[in-house]
């Protein structure tokens, strides 16, 4: 992601990160903002929610950004010219279909206006380890967002859920990644696999030139 962004700019690149914020744990914008800043990027976080912890725990509390609020914030960013400065947009956990639909509409419009000057990374956060932790009407909207994306970073569960091809071996992982390429993302990284893929030596990453390899065991959840 950083390399693709660097191809578009020469100094002080600015990125919009649309993800969750948690008090406890390091996920969403807490995991994205600091590393990107260390790499020299200016990061504008747009929080889709403010929660005590991520929703994979047995309990959580907090508030969520509404679709109207997200649209209003984005429209204000447009009015001051901020969206013209972004070389990249990261998206992660949204959690509600109406909010994700509003986000998709904004990103599709921005992609149409900016074209190749904009890198869009879609992390279709909707579940893990065989379980959804978002409503069932959320995943289909990620397919729409993927059509406008440059990079896709699903985990193994999300990759199988969205594509209909569970990445259980090297060949099925490649077929799964090819489905993502067919929607639009130039790079596909399957960030975790529940079982080690036979014959795999490195992370599951493919680009639309057809290269790729299998991955190792799933890392612990953040």
Secondary structure: elements and pairs:
Elements: H1 2-8, E1 14-22, H2 29-38, E2 42-51, E3 62-64, H3 67-79, E4 86-91, H4 97-114, E5 119-122, E6 127-128, E7 131-132, H5 139-147, E8 151-152, H6 156-163, H7 170-183, E9 187-190, E10 204-207, E11 212-213
Parallel strand pairs: 1-2, 1-4, 4-5, 5-8, 8-9
Antiparallel strand pairs: 2-3, 6-7, 9-10, 10-11
Helix pairs in contact: 3-4, 4-5
Structural class: alpha/beta
Radius of gyration: 17 Å
> Poorly predicted ranges (pLDDT <50, ≥5 residues)?
211-222
Per CATH, the class of the domain at 2-152 reads: Alpha Beta
CATH homology superfamily name of the domain at 2-152: Ribokinase
Number of helices: 7
- Basic shape: globular
What does this structure look like?
This is pyridoxal kinase. The structure is a single chain. The protein is an alpha/beta fold. A nine-stranded mixed β-sheet has the order 3-2-1-4-5-8-9-10-11. Strands 6-7 form a two-stranded antiparallel ribbon. The two termini are about 20 Å apart. The protein is globular. The chain has a domain at about 1-150: UDP-N-acetylmuramoyl-L-alanine:D-glutamate ligase. The relative contact order is 0.12. The protein is built from seven helices and eleven strands.
What keywords describe this structure?
single chain, 222 residues, alpha/beta, UDP-N-acetylmuramoyl-L-alanine:D-glutamate ligase, nine-stranded mixed β-sheet, two-stranded antiparallel ribbon, 36% helix, disordered C terminus
């Amino acid at each position: 992601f950083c390399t693709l962004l660097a191809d578009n700019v020469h100094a002080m690149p600015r990125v919009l990160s649309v993800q969750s914020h948690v008090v406890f744990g390091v996920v969403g914008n807490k995991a994205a903002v600091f590393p990107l800043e260390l790499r020299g990027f200016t990061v504008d976080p747009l929080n889709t929610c403010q929660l005590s912890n991520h929703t994979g725990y047995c309990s959580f509390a907090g508030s969520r950004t509404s679709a109207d609020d997200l649209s209003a914030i984005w429209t204000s960013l447009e009015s001051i010219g901020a969206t013209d400065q972004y070389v990249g947009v990261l998206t992660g956990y949204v959690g509600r279909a109406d909010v994700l639909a509003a986000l998709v509409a904004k990103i599709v419009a921005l992609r149409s206006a900016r074209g190749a000057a904009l890198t869009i990374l879609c992390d279709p956060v909707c579940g893990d380890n065989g379980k959804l932790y978002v409503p069932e009407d959320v995943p289909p909207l990620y397919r729409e967002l993927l059509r406008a994306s440059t990079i896709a970073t699903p985990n193994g569960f999300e990759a199988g859920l969205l594509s209909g091809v569970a990445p259980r071996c090297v060949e099925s992982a490649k077929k799964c990644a090819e489905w993502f390429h067919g929607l639009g993302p130039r790079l596909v990284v399957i960030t975790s696999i529940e079982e080690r893929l036979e014959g795999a030596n490195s992370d599951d990453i493919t680009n639309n030139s057809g290269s790729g390899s299998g991955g190792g065991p799933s890392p612990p959840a953040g």
